[in-house]
């Protein structure tokens, strides 16, 4: 094919492409990067889990000298970065030239610190080392132990000629428009200017002009500022505009969503948006969930924000033992503590986790913030045995004594007074969240079906016995200590099984939870029970209400997936005064 004919072919292909449907513009507010903050760490110049250790202080990234650098110190920095631990320390390896300050020298960590900068060291920048002594680390790459290893989702809206158009993009033949993609690295250059790295991507005006936000009809080039971690994905994004095909994974989904919303590529934005809830359960480190939550807040995407928050609320115990826990913002932790759908063993667990979050932050949260968070604990819901020992077992009791005393008094009153007496005091408010249970999964309040392996499976239709009887107190107030209710819990897998009980069921499997005693004598207690669907014994992916004792798959728009539909049912009893 002659050069001329080739060019003609290219233009024909491009023209065919443009005759496709025009896209509507839907623009989110622009994305802002969270800049590095004092004490942040990163690995530079290596792979995903190794590199030179750099730490941010006073507006610049600097290095760490090898005096005192050992496995204890390496564990701290790996954990700070979301890895489980360090594999080995690296000394004397050149991960590219370092030019910034040497921030840390004579470092001594216990190994339990959360941030490298909370270990003992001489002083910021006080050192007699040179960059030859910069340390590196290899972290154990146990980050994001995916339930679905390295899942890749293929988005494909391609029409004919997709592959040819992909080749046109790849060859850049006839390209008449270029995009300079720039990112600041967070480093400062010798002249004091911020270091910027970039790539240039060649494209065709005709293609890009479908999306006016590229300004392709106005000039010959644009410059796009993008966060460093998104830079490698920009080319896939532009290629998508040619081919309508792209592979998406955990590390690229957020970038692609941002680019699609920035340039008004609506279909891609919707597709990646839908992928978010699929991807949420994949990251056991919770770094993705937290990062997506922050992204949603920045872009004012309330649906995505609720989607992330709900997942974290339903899987709160795992969140609290994940690397993301101590990095949670005050605002995010507050939003979680306000929720009644927090799934936790009991309220004492919530108190302990908030105390651990506060102590983990060292002195970086103000006393007001601490009190603000602690006051969201529903003290009356704390089991009485834990209340009695709180004074001795709580790590913050002595720092916030008056607040704890006031809350304990309220809790004790709740446990010894009949609710109507409590409420006759104008100090108490019926609507007070403190008297509302969350979803408490402690044995006292819940039961699991099936009780043994194998789990229920849609594919094999295998079951363990799908019925159980369990007892709970009538209410968690001590007044009801000796009053029990017996509950009959069932999961039905066919219309036949429902019919055997004289029931009509709408979908399968379906769950039923029935009190075996008459509840009429407890007229001031109502039950707002819940059914948790727990995927592969690992994460809660759905929470259902009960209506007329039958579980209802509510009007829930936000659903997380459960591969193979391998799940267990956890029935949770939740009494509440009315
Ligand atoms: C991740 O998975 C591997 C193998 O499946 C396991 O050995 C390792 O302990 C897991 N890491 C975490 C943090 O769960
Ligand atoms: C996602 O895909 C890119 C290549 O497209 C790859 O470099 C990266 O490691 C993948 N990330 C994950 C978490 O699988
Ligand atoms: C980029 O575009 C601007 C105006 O849109 C123009 O002034 C400038 O010369 C272009 N740069 C290059 C290298 O073509
Ligand atoms: C397109 O042009 C508008 C108006 O000149 C400008 O505000 C916008 O930043 C441009 N977009 C890009 C991607 O350069
Ligand atoms: C927090 O501050 C108190 C005094 O205000 C001090 O005694 C304590 O050591 C500090 N804790 C940490 C972890 O810095
Ligand atoms: C309080 O601490 C004591 C001693 O460490 C322990 O035995 C007890 O179980 C703790 N109480 C609760 C409710 O955790
Ligand atoms: C959550 O924690 C439980 C108990 O520690 C564990 O069995 C489960 O695998 C965890 N789930 C995930 C998604 O890591
Ligand atoms: C609940 O309803 C949604 C939407 O109708 C459906 O996709 C999902 O499979 C249902 N879940 C269960 C457990 O039946």
Question: Explain this structure to me?
Answer:
With 578 residues, the protein is an alpha+beta fold. It has four domains: 3-19 and 150-248, Potassium Channel Kv1.1, Chain A (2-Layer Sandwich), CATH 3.30.710; 41-139, Mac-2 Binding Protein (Roll); 345-429, no CATH class; 441-577, no CATH class. A hairpin with a 5-residue loop joins strand 1 (41-44) and strand 2. It is globular and about 80 Å long. It starts with a helix and ends with a strand. The relative contact order is 0.08. One 2-acetamido-2-deoxy-beta-D-glucopyranose is lined by residues 84, 142, 145.
Q: Short description, anyone?
A:
The chain is α+β, with helices and mostly antiparallel strands.
Q: Helical content, roughly?
A: 25-40%
> What number of structural domains do the residues give?
4
**Alpha plus pi helix count:** 17
Instruction: Say what oligomer this is.
Output: single chain
Ligand catalogue: 2-acetamido-2-deoxy-beta-D-glucopyranose
Compute the number of strand runs.
24
Give the low-confidence spans.
16-33, 143-150
Strand content: 15-25%
Measured distance between first and last alpha carbons: 82 Å
Helix/strand/pairing category: alpha+beta
Summarize model confidence as the mean pLDDT: 84
Rg value: 29 Å
Shape: globular
Q: Could you describe the largest sheet, including whether it forms a barrel?
A: 6 strands, mixed
Organism: Liparis tanakae
Domain SRCR: 41-140
Signal peptide: 1-22
Disulfide bonds: 65-129, 78-139, 109-119
